[in-house]
Amino acid sequence: MRYSKILNWRESLQLNQKNRSQFIPFGQNDFWGISADSFASNIADVPKTIRNKTRGAEFLLVSTLRFDPAYTSKSQYWELVGQYAAKLKSMTGPGVQFVDMTAISESVFTDKKPKDCLQRPTPS
User: Fold this and answer.
1) Over the Cα atoms of the chain, what is R_g?
2) How many distinct structural domains can be found in the chain?
3) Domain limits for position 71
4) 6, 38, 50, 71 — which has fewest CB within 10 A?
């Protein structure tokens, strides 16, 4: 699974640099075909693994921007982006904060057309 590669990369970065602050951003390629529950389960493993190596590590989870809803007629993709953001938000707590770029992009789309923002998903 793709997340095992992320986990291995994050773990090796942590072992090499001993960073206490970790940024975990998610793009639109992260959600094609993976349920929100599976996503959350996989992502929850990243901080656990890093904290086993570095006590006191802190995390900033960043959700993806919304894409142009005209890109696909499958509403499940639009809904899944929101579900992913909700799962990330639910992971906040001591040492884990969340930046909701999904909500920010929704706000932008109320004033600007999605196509004007040049955000286009690319399924993997």
Assistant:
1) 15
2) 1
3) 22-117
4) 38
